[in-house]
Amino acid sequence: MEYFLQQGLNALALGGTYALLGLGLAVVFSVLGLINFAHGELMTLTGYGIFYTLLMGVPYPLALLAGVLIAALAAVLMERIAFRPVRNASPTTMLLTSFAVSTILHILFQNLISARPKAIPVPDAIIGAVSVGSMQIGIIQLLSIAITAVSLLGLTLFLKKSLLGIAMRAAAEDFNVARLMGVNANMVISTAFAISGILAGIAGVLWLFQRGSVDPMMGFLPVLKAFIAVVLGGLGSLTGAVIGGFILGIIEVSLRAYLPDGMLAYRDAISLTLVILVLFFLPQGIVPRRESVR
Amino acid sequence: MPVTLLSVQKVAVRYGAIQAVENAELAVAAGEIVTLLGANGAGKSSLLNACMGLVPLAGGQVHFDGQRISGTRTEHVVRRGMTLTPEGRRVFPGLSVADNLAIGAAASPQLRRETAARRTEMYDLFPRLHERQKQLAGTLSGGEQQMLAIARSLMSNPKLLLLDEPSLGLAPNIVDQIFDIIAALRARGVTILLVEQNAELALDIADRGYVLAGGRIVLSGTPGELRASGLERVYLGAH
Predict the structure, then answer these.
(1) Which residue, among B90, B144, B145, B163, would best test binding to A if mutated, counting the most A CBs under 10 Å from its CB?
(2) What is the domain extent for residue A114?
(3) What residue ranges are annotated as transmembrane (chain A) (predicted)?
(4) What number of other Cβ atoms are within 10 A of residue B236's Cβ?
(5) Which ipTM value was assigned to this complex?
């Protein structure tokens, strides 16, 4: 039972990170129809942002904040410089543009910084575990779950209560009619990218807590997983992205915990097979995107 | 002589090689209900979208309330006082009635400040929407969605309302209700440009009308003149 609870918390922590990344992808997709393959580089930028601000002697919590803000700013600039000029082009053009942005950033990281990992120390205060009854719970796990919960709550409040948030939901459902009502298209799209950057930054911080280092490839694997989570949850649905993220986290952690040792190498293959099975029965994902009545 | 609110001069709209509107001339004076008639695919919606700045003009100019609006962004057009209720209602299905209305007042800081007061006005005008203010728009009936779509457009306090096919897909008794609302709006001082396939209904309520066929204005005049000039032939000819 304890082992089960422990693994449950692990699944929540990992799934939460996927959920944040998936949400970032889904927010942009919902308003622009673009899968931003450069999303992982935003996560990596957070890592380098934290690395260099720490190097400059900035206190640890402020460095984390700076890392997140750098990702948000980078996301907004990415849209302004790379995606806005091709906004009315075909979805394929936008997709290829995002590949290009991803590749360019990746090469810049390699050539201007280093292809090798840079260590980012994790403070002693959050290493270790607290005892709850007879259970040992990792502080990093608890922190991850708490940060994920606060982020999801904050985003939900923003989308439900603020006019800009309501306008973003409206634009996600019917962009042309939102424009017709006088909603500023650039404003909505910039906000979507800023949110996706903040979410990638927060996910980046959580990922760094686990890994303790940043390298040019840091964002690749988690964002690939997040993409799978988004497809699983239903492309374009924000709720779906969160659900998909948590399901993928649960699948991965369960396989790691309960597969016999000899099978562990096949973990990713098995988890992807499970995802394909779900999509076989729910091809639109778990929460299909609401289409407006035309 | 009443003030000309909307003036469309030699407007052309193209989608790639397709010529949707050609050399269209149209004017709407303050206080009028003007109807724009034509068969499916005649270019009516394209012309309205072009007036709103949603599709670029391939030629010509649009002036509204004494200022040139062609080439400006849609939100500026809405701020100046012209809105469009699109064909097929197009409410935001996943947003509540109240939130749909809030989006209608998103175009300027001043409108945003007046959101609550305008919404109360809309609820007075459409009591059904008041009852359902927390409901998701996608769960409303077709007639209620059309009321919501019109109310959403009225949130920006427009001088001129462009109504694109408000009767489309609605039961006859609901259509009567919608046309009563249109008449009530005129009584409140809203000028209306009404696009309709249902020519009889539109001519009953309009002061003047234009007929669009193959992207060109082929007829214009009072309802009596249009009826006398063989409207049916134009419709049949367009098919």
Answers:
(1) B90
(2) 17-219
(3) 12-38, 50-77, 89-109, 139-159, 180-207, 227-251, 263-282
(4) 10
(5) 0.87
